[in-house]
Amino acid sequence: QLQLVESGGGLVQPGGSLRLSCAASGFTLDWYTIGWFRQAPGKEREGVSCISSSGGSTNYADSVKGRFTISRDNAKNTVYLQMNSLKPEDTAVYYCAAARVVVTTLLGSYYDYWGQGTQVTVSS
Fold this sequence. Notes:
Low-confidence stretches: none
Shape: globular
Strand content: over 45%
Helix content: under 10%
Radius of gyration: 13 Å
Order of helices and strands: EEEEEEEEEEE
């Protein structure tokens, strides 16, 4: 069974950091572009960041550039999202997704497999 599982979410104060992980089971992530998306209550899903299968290309939403860093460890079949300088507006459920495309796109329609999400809450 193909599955993506996110972890690492939680409650953090503004200015704090979290590292999210996306682990795959049932398939290898080597051939997939992996994206992170988020959805806040009452808002549409937003593409946050993505990384190519080789890790050589990344893409970030303007809202997180300079604060978030995506990386992958294909040996561990895991992708990470390091989130620094967190703001209350980063509060959302964060999802990882896998796409068999070569472009680093933040369009969710390109992604084939999705995780269940992990909650990130930024609040004092």
